[in-house]
Design goal:
6-stranded mixed beta sheet, Rossmann fold, AAA+_ATPase, translocase, 25% strand, 9 strands, binds adenosine-5'-triphosphate, 9 helices, alpha/beta, Bact_Polysacc_Export_ATP-bd
Length: 269
């Protein structure tokens, strides 16, 4: 089975400021203010054709940062990424222009992806039909609910037929009918051997839909392997975490934050 995504030693660094004034001063005198914070540090893994990878991890662990890097929306601060084919990200709000209508967004996105006018004319009815937004398709996206934005984003991304599909929490805001329709479409992608990354806090969806699980813990790969192997470990971690007292949870968060601050880093390149 051929490799579609190869991620080597990826890190993503942001600046963390204690006060707004520090941010301003850092603009004037770059480098002198704020701490380096690693949203991701030293992430390496590979994905193959037909892999459906559930990315799990607690809030703030780095899942969206990773999905944005794989889809090319943001660059990594270090490391390399090899992608075979075209990757499309489906996330709430991703790539939609709020001032344009749904239909105009379809046209813009397709143009940006290199489709010509004729191809767009052919694709548009399929996308409009899948999104099923009624007359809202001709309303500005700023008037959409988050579920409606997700419908439009999903409809565009699956109908342009990408090789790699990255779904970041987009299903969590859809109603059941739409979620079922999306899951059916994703099954079709899976059967056609595409690579899918599925970011979700729903362990049931990961269990039912994915073949592999990538568990990210505070910017690092904690475990990567089959769903059967990794998901029970993550589930146990969540149970243990819930059992901790508020004080213990706070201590744990502080310790992991320390590991992500630049001064204490050794692994991130
Ligand atoms: N532009 C940014 N500037 C500074 N810090 C950022 C930026 N984007 C993300 N972060 C930080 O990086 C960390 C990882 O964020 P990310 O959104 O990737 O987490 P996540 O695992 O997707 O979380 P969630 O489950 O809550 O969606 C967080 O601590 C977040 O505050």
């Amino acid at each position: 089975m051929s490799k579609t995504v190869v991620v080597k030693h990826i890190a993503k660094k942001y600046k963390m400021y204690k006060k707004d004034s520090e941010k301003l001063l850092d603009l004037i005198l770059p480098g002198g203010y704020g701490d380096d914070f690693y949203a991701l540090r030293d992430i390496s893994f590979e994905a193959n054709e037909g892999d459906v990878i559930g990315i799990v991890g607690v809030n703030g662990s780095g899942k969206s940062t990773l999905s944005n890097i794989i889809s090319g929306i943001i660059p990594p601060s270090a490391g390399t990424l090899e992608i075979k084919g075209q990757a499309a990200l489906i996330a709430i709000n991703a790539g939609l222009n709020n001032n344009l209508t749904g239909r105009e967004n379809i046209e813009l996105k397709c143009l940006m992806l290199g489709f010509n006018r004729k191809e767009i004319r052919e694709l548009e009815p399929e996308i409009v039909d899948f999104a099923d937004l009624g007359h809202f398709i001709d309303q500005p996206v700023k008037n959409y609910s988050s579920g409606m934005k997700s419908r439009l984003g999903f409809a565009i991304s699956v109908n342009i037929d990408p090789d790699i599909l990255i779904i970041d929490e987009a299903l969590s805001v859809g109603d059941q009918t739409f979620t079922d329709k999306c899951l059916a479409k994703m099954d079709e992608f899976k059967e056609r051997g595409k690579t899918i990354f599925f970011i979700s806090h729903s362990l049931n969806q990961v269990q039912d839909f994915c073949t592999k699980t990538l568990w990210i813990e505070y910017g690092e790969v904690k475990e990567y392997g089959s769903v059967e192997e990794v998901l029970p470990h993550y589930s146990q971690f969540l149970k243990d975490f819930k059992k901790m007292s508020a004080q213990e949870q706070k201590k744990y968060r502080e310790e992991t934050l320390k590991k992500r601050l630049g001064s204490s880093l050794t692994a991130a390149k």
